[in-house]
Amino acid sequence: MDISLLVDQLNDGQRNAVAASSPHQLVLAGAGSGKTRVLVHRIAWLLEVEGVSPFAVMAVTFTNKAAKEMKGRLEELLNVPANGMWVGTFHGLAHRFLKLHWREAGLPQHFQILDSDDQLRLVKRVMRENNVDDSRYPPKQIQWFINEQKDEGRRAAHVMPSSDPFAKTLREVYYLYEQICQQNGLVDFGEILLRAHELWLENPDLLAHYQQRFRNILVDEFQDTNNIQYAWIRLLAGNKVSVMAVGDDDQSIYGWRGANIGNIRDFQQDFPGAELIKLEQNYRSTKTILAAANAVISNNSGRLGKNLFTDGAEGEPIRLYSAFNEQDEARYIADQVDNWAKEGNARADMAILYRSNAQSRTLEEALLRAGIPYRIYGGQRFYERLEIKNALAYLRLLLNRDDDGSVERVINVPARAIGEKTVDILRSFARDQGCSLWKSCELAIANNALPKRATSSVQSFLDLVDEMSAGIEELELQEIVSHVIENSGLIEHHKKEKGEKGQARVDNLEELVNAARQFDADEEPDLAEEDGDQPLSELAQFLDRAALDAGDGQADEYEDAVQLMTLHSAKGLEFPQVVLAGLEEGLFPHKMSMDEAEGLEEERRLAYVGITRAMDQLIITHAESRRLYGQENFSTPSRFIREIPSEYISEVRLKNTVSRPLSARPKLGGAITTGRKLLDDSLPYGLGQRVLHAMFGEGTVVQFEGQGNGLRVQVNFDDAGSKWLVVSFAKLEAL
After folding, report:
1. How far is CA 4 from CA 75, 114, 630, in A?
2. Helices 499-518 and 538-552: crossing angle, nearest 10°?
3. CA–CA distances in Å: residue 556 to residues 545, 561, 562, 564
4. Are 481 and 516 in contact (CB under 8 A)?
């Protein structure tokens, strides 16, 4: 195949990258600009035109999926097998070097790779054997600390000594962990890259051999490299190997997990003679969507600079929906999915993106009630998440101490020095006595069947559950849930987890309180009674509803389903229609990132990624009030909405509106006004309307559902609380 003819079919930017003759190249590849095509054609150019050996080219990707796709495209383009080529992830290629040079790397020939779970178990073993209190020093936090140090290229000996007891203990556990790994030939994921880097540093002849062998290195998604990955590339390249770095500084969104945007910004300085090539022509999105993305990202400073454009259609305006609250937002989005499918489109071609995992609960409930199949991409449904299952287990124990599954789940969560050996003794006791695990705990303590420390820990667990259950009859449902997640220690436990993951778990637990607050037992007639017409408590009904929602499951693998995902999970994907939900200050941009310039700029890059996932249609939603993080928030629209020029936005209005504004809010890009949303042509009130009821007094309309004679409204009454009322019987008077 004549590669020169194929290159002639590329656009100017792509052609410049593929046929570049400079010593090094930094290719700024905008969203949807065909970067994989450029990488594959560049390799083909090197082999076919410049006569480089296939074994003299190394291509580094970030995922096995990307590596497999690249190999497949190369085989198709060159019509030769690509198995012998060095194409793979950072970890995959570094592992390949270590397997070839295990002696020089100081490893046994058949060294064992630890996955994340194996690594955590080893950390716990080190702590146990050295009497490190796992309630004071959470094992996951120590695991995170070790991995962070390795990503920075630091051994335990290189970590700065500290007089702080906590920092000192982290360093000591890291040192002990290193010793056990070395003694047993164990290599975790961070160690693979660190050890491969040290292999070059400590063996200059070996490094020289590979610098002679590899003439070209190509790195994909360069903006996502961390410090050890960049150091590895720089060392291997030296001043002898040509490097092409392909990435987009505007899509650097993983700073919270170690990615260093400075790597792509410093590339031209670190690799003298590097040529900057921009891929700005987009083959994915409409002109309107790209104009919005360009306008938003232009507010970031320190960019390398590019402006996406397309020869494609102008496209529809971006639809902006201002919801009254998060339920109204979720209902509107569910309606859009339904309309999308009724127009003959596949649900799988539509994605709902959100900043925080906790947002998914309200969206999931709306989709479930509308009977719309959905799938959480790269994640779990709300009630299947670990932290939610743990909280529900504690709640179940308040009602039934003999729930063995719940006891097993949380007896050592958070960690309270009850190991698997102790649990095995308790299980054996339960089998021998024919009793529940809870009763087994009581009997084992009474009969001195456990070691002294374990006895104390098990008794503390029993006391904790008993104390949490005392007086709950006097509490509202949401107060019970809040009481349990606080007093069980779950909130503090997850706050100790560093980074985005720990915060997401805390957000989800607080969202569980919101779920309880919004739960209406009157809506659950199928859950309200047991055999003999014995009414269930509201807590029992809530737990049953959670179990039923979890049991509904996600859509089957091959079922046509709308995609739900966080914005971080959406990177690299594209969909004909995209909904960006929850664009409010404090939620997106996230409250934890708003106070620092770098954090805010990464949030804006995340917005840019979200916008550029859309191919044909983009919908943006925000809520005027949202119950999040355990409290009602009256939100202002996200600055990212205001940064989109008004000519690209069309505000969505419900069929019936009146002109009286909900509140005096700032206009968004000069284009936004808000009307009160009416529920029905014949009704004098809408969402947010103050109304009067003969029995319950004054309140505010917050939700509605159904139609015709079945139309119901939810009203938050000032004195009587929240009530669902059938409109045709309620005789509500608008105030």
Report:
1. 17, 45, 61
2. 120
3. 21, 8, 12, 14
4. yes
| 344-359 pLDDT tens trace | 999 999 999 999 888 9
Residue appearing with tokens 């004098």:
684
What dihedral angle (degrees, nearest 10) is formed by the CA atoms of 381, 353, 588, 625? -70
Distance from C-alpha of 386 to C-alpha of 542, rounded to nearest angstrom:
18
**AA letter at 103:** R
Looking at 1.10.486.10, 1.10.260.40, 2.60.120.580, 2.60.120.260, the CATH number of the domain 384-543 comes to 1.10.486.10
The fold of 112-184 is Arc Repressor Mutant, subunit A (1.10.10)
The CA distance from 407 to 441, in Å, is 10
**CA separation, residue 512 to residues 148, 218, 480 (Å):** 31, 46, 11
pLDDT of residue 556: 62
* Structure-token pair, residue 189: 């994921």
**Position 402 confidence tier, pLDDT thresholds 50, 70, 90:** confident
The CATH number of the structural domain formed by 3-101+194-281 is 3.40.50.300
The whole-model pTM stands at 0.76
Q: Which two tokens stand for residue 537?
A: 């408590």
**Pairing mode of beta strands 86-89, 57-61:** parallel
Judging by DSSP bridges, how do beta strands 712-717 and 721-726 pair with one another?
A: antiparallel
CA end-to-end distance (rounded Å), the chain: 77
pLDDT in tens, 548-570: 666 555 566 668 999 999 999 99
734 φ/ψ angles, rounded to the nearest 5 degrees: -70, 135
Structure tokens belonging to residue 449:
């069947």
Cα 717 to Cα 135: distance, rounded to the nearest angstrom: 44
Average pLDDT over residues 330-346: 95
Q: Which residue has the tokens 């003298």?
A: 272
User: Annotated active-site positions, please?
Assistant: 35-36, 220-221, 251, 613
CATH architecture of 318-381+559-674: 3-Layer(aba) Sandwich (3.40)
Q: Tell me whether strands 631-634 and 625-628 are parallel, antiparallel or unpaired.
A: antiparallel
Contacts of 454 (CB under 8 A, 6+ apart): 417, 418, 419, 422, 425
